[in-house]
Design brief:
Pfam family, one: DUF7847
Shape: globular
Oligomer: single chain
Keywords: Membrane, Transmembrane, Transmembrane helix
Distance between the termini: 91 Å
Strand content: under 5%
InterPro entries: DUF7847
Protein name: Membrane domain of glycerophosphoryl diester phosphodiesterase
Order of helices and strands: EEHHHHHHHHHHHHHH
Number of helices: 14
């Protein structure tokens, strides 16, 4: 075969003379007659994709959103696709609506980020409220020890009366102390949480100075909530008193169980409805009644979700706390029984019970306060687009390189009004 036209390259080495050269994708025919010129190339058909180009999607199956047509392993990103940027997380939570894992993880990070303030304050409050309860229980254990060694003397003496008075007196005194101390502790822990969302820290003293103007509203909130929770007792107590006068134990027991079954849903509904009121008092500067209304509105539309999370975390915190308290309670019981009511046994059992109660409450208080505070932030992000306010502030502080104390003002309700599509009630 003669050599072709100069514009057509010859075959590569090793190819037979009669074999055409490989197709090069230039649109010209690989065969050229000897001594003739190639025909002009036809204009490319726009409906035919060039060689090597990806095939277009079938009709009616174009790109959807950021992803192309589904492949053998699911939809894949089209050309030029960039994954969305990661969610901002300057502090203990991501600045978006939270799920259960975020809330539990944020609570743990809250405790780990500032353990001295959270665990230290919780330990002080727990010890102050646990000591009266431990003293009352020690009288009961002391009487039980005497009952084992000398039943006749223990039953005829004033020891049973002292045990009952000490037990219930300690419980009553412990409840009064908890009312005061836990209310203040909740306010301080909530203020620390408000700063920790942005990655900042507050000492116990700084948090107390910020919470001090809200103490009156906090006590008013706890008092009003307690009255609402105890209101059914106005009817329950007289009914039980009349049933007890009937001297029919079956009727009394059945009526007690019925009233208890009716009271439990009442208590659960109002406890969940008002669970976001303390953060509203501390972070938004609202009064007691206004904070209760605010909590009621925030919970509306998400009651069952909040109910499940609060119930689950309360059981979890109680389980963790019982691990510490149960060990010391068994030890205190053994010491009281072995000591047979001696002064040393009473003191030792009191100390053991106080330690167990302190360790238990030191864990449960921060968990409950952290969960309620994060649920409050989550509901504001879901209902008021509050995450946009938090993200804007976080980007600004990231640019500046430090957390200013003015971030505390971002929790005020007027800040949420600046977010698009938000309406703060």
């Amino acid at each position: 075969m003669s050599e072709g036209h100069g514009s057509t390259p010859g075959p590569p080495p090793g190819w037979a003379a009669e074999q055409p050269p490989p197709y090069r994708g230039d649109g010209a025919s690989p065969w050229v007659a000897p001594g003739s010129s190639p025909e002009p190339a036809a204009a490319p058909d726009p409906s035919v994709p060039p060689p090597g180009a990806p095939l277009p999607p079938p009709p009616g199956q174009g790109f959807h959103g950021r992803y192309g047509p589904p492949g053998p392993h699911g939809p894949g990103p089209h050309y030029g696709h960039h994954p969305p940027p990661p969610v901002l997380r300057p502090g203990i939570i991501p600045l978006r609506p939270l799920n259960l894992g975020d809330i539990l993880d944020g609570t743990v990070k809250l405790i780990r980020s500032n353990p001295r303030a959270l665990l230290g304050l919780s330990a002080i409050v727990a010890a102050v409220s646990a000591i009266p309860l431990a003293v009352g229980q020690s009288f009961t254990f002391s009487w039980l020890g005497g009952l084992v060694n000398d039943p006749e003397s223990a039953l005829t003496s004033e020891a049973p009366v002292n045990a009952v008075v000490g037990q219930y007196g300690g419980v009553l005194l412990s409840m009064i102390i908890q009312f005061v101390a836990v209310t203040l502790l909740t306010g301080v822990l909530t203020r620390i949480l408000g700063r920790a969302v942005f990655g900042g820290k507050l000492s116990a003293g700084e948090a107390w100075r910020l919470v001090r103007p809200r103490v009156g509203a906090l006590f008013g909130l706890v008092a009003l909530t307690g009255l609402i929770m105890l209101a059914p007792l106005v009817l329950i107590v007289p009914i039980l008193a009349l049933a007890a006068a009937n001297t029919d134990p079956v009727l009394y027991l059945g009526l007690t169980l019925l009233l208890l079954v009716l009271y439990i849903p009442y208590a659960l509904v109002f406890s969940v409805r008002f669970s976001l009121a303390p953060p509203a008092v501390v972070l938004e500067g609202r009064g007691a009644v206004d904070a209760m209304r605010r909590s009621w509105r925030l919970v509306t539309g998400g009651f069952w979700r909040l109910f499940g999370i609060i119930l689950l975390t309360t059981l979890l915190a109680g389980l963790i706390g019982s691990i510490f308290s149960t060990v010391f309670t068994f030890a205190a019981t053994a010491v009281a029984l072995i000591g047979a009511g001696s002064t040393g046994a009473v003191i030792a059992s009191t100390v053991l019970l106080a330690i167990g109660g302190t360790l238990s409450a030191m864990i449960t208080y921060p968990i409950q306060a952290g969960v309620n505070g994060l649920l409050y932030a989550d509901q504001r992000m879901r209902k008021e687009a509050f995450d946009l306010v938090l993200q804007t502030a976080a980007l600004e502080h990231q640019r500046q390189g430090w957390i200013h104390s003015s971030v505390d003002d971002l929790w005020l309700p007027e800040q949420a009004d600046q977010a698009p599509g938000s309406q703060t009630p």
